[in-house]
Amino acid sequence: MDEQTRLMHSHTGVGMAGHPGLPQHMQEGTGGTDGDGRKQDIGDILQQIMTITDQSLDEAQARKHALNCHRMKPALFNVLCEIKEKTVLSIRGAQEEEPPDPQLMRLDNMLLAEGVSGPEKGGGSAAAAAAAAASGGVGADNSAEHSDYRAKLTQIRQIYHTELEKYEQACNEFTTHVMNLLREQSRTRPISPKEIERMVNIIHRKFSSIQMQLKQSTCEAVMILRSRFLDARRKRRNFNKQATEILNEYFYSHLSNPYPSEEAKEELAKKCAITVAQVSNWFGNKRIRYKKNIGKFQEEANMYAARTAVNAANASSHGSQANSPSTPNSAAPCLYLCLLSFCLHLN
DNA sequence: GTACATGATTACGC
DNA sequence: GCGTAATCATGTAC
Known about the structure:
Helix content is 72%, strand content 0%. The chain has 14 helices and no strands. Helix 6 (102-113) crosses helix 9 (193-230), helix 7 packs antiparallel against helix 8 and helix 8 (140-185) packs antiparallel against helix 9 (193-230). 18% of the residues are buried. It binds a DNA duplex through residues 231-239, 244, 259, 277-278, 280-285, 287-289, 291-292, 346.
């Protein structure tokens, strides 16, 4: 016997013995051969059901028990089940075949792509790689930012899974509770397994809507994290002092032609732990700003020229020639001539 | 909060 | 593609 049949017929064969709370004709019945008597039986039962709420609790309990034990009860119960099957299910049947929510699918896809849901893949390494490509560099700062990004994404992932687990646990507990309640009630009123199943679906849908909110919030958090990470202007950091020194040294020691070759740019980038593109940006900005306000940079130019001269003197006194962008072979060029040359070059 | 410094971006010319 | 000039957006010192 399947579950539905078992539930629907759970009262079949339950004692037909009489009960003091029922009228005599209900206790004895009509022997099942008298059609009018049966109709009257059913009429009486329905009448009692209709008036049961007007009675005291004890009376109602006694009457309910009597009704459950009545010989006509299983038949009436089955009829009610059939009616419910034909009406309720046919009405609601169409509503259950809902297509998957496109918004939920989008959220799921995004969480999967970002590595928040699905199998662990290094805290969204794909996104981090994309971010790295967008930022155009792999310097030390970038590595730090990547690990920061991954750490934050992992944090989001953990929170998401913890909350999801809580929701699923709550959903399961509530579903079990409702199912037990319905099974218990199915003894006294017609509740088919399909109805229980439908109720479970309703509960799941309710919890799904909560889950969707969680997914939406998670997606928003990831989007904010990504936008902050990917927005190069937002994450602009000043170069460290050493890097600026190296770049300035090269600039002022090559003031007559402050255009580093590709090789020189690469070497400077390596020394400063920045990208070649950043070196190019720096020289572009430096050239234009120097040209715009030579007077303002005069002191700085003198300082670096003096430093270069000292470096060159030291190098020659040690019998060796430095050969790097920061200490060019040209030794200490005459600052005035350099300035003049640079201005002529720019003009 | 403001002014200035600075790295990045964009439009343009070559 | 590179450099220039203007501009944006953020960092920093006060």
